[in-house]
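Form 7-S
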Amino acid sequence: MAIDICPFPKLDKILLATDGSEAAVFATNVAIEIAKPCKSIVYAISVAEIPGFAEEFEAFDIMFMEKKAKQFLDEVKKMTDKAQIKCETIIHTGPEPHKYIIDEAVKNNVDLIIIGRKGKMLGSVGRKVIDNAPCNVLVTPVGASLNFDKILIATDGSVYSQIAAAEAIGTAKRFNSELLIVSVAKRNENIPYAEESVKMVKEAADREGVKSQTIVTEGEPFEQIVDIANKNNVGLIFMGKYGRKGIEKFFMGSVTEKVIATSARPVLVVRKKVI
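Output:
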């Protein structure tokens, strides 16, 4: 589905991480699809990863990896040029690729990072990028169709899910989407809290004239969210970075992480921008 309207209020700069994989190529197509109506600049980064014990690597091996990284970026540039999207390419060499990706996101003040995912494996680099990103991160599974006919916001009433809900409502308003507001109680005694959580989002959606439906259910949160998204043919899932159980400095909220790993739908991890 072609996107004719920019889905987010400010999307001047997109950062795309590529390793030449099928997932990365798919993510490139998604980046182009979003960048076109938003008139965004795409910053494409590839990291020639070498372990911390780089002295064991021959100079030839490092040059080979850098050459491969350049080839990955050349392919991205070819795709963006064809779509008439402005693209700047960035190569780094070293250990811990996620640090270079985060550094470039901060340096270039990007508004969105896009990551591809194949199967149920996001990969350690992807997880660390999401965990440390200074902006929203879109994770798109290979083959998933990004569309805005129907979008889902998962809420647990935390401040993080409220931030995500505000973004979901804004996007739904732009596209005249139907908004599914979902809260999952792990135990029966938590259902009243879940009902209050969806009520808050529903009231906010009503104030903006967004048509919405609330769903409260009991069970394993990530399984229920993924199941509801599949049954309702949702085009995009919005989730907060953390849940109400508190913040773990170096780890994603477990529900968000599991939804990302198992969803056949694109997931937007919403973070309050800190730069």
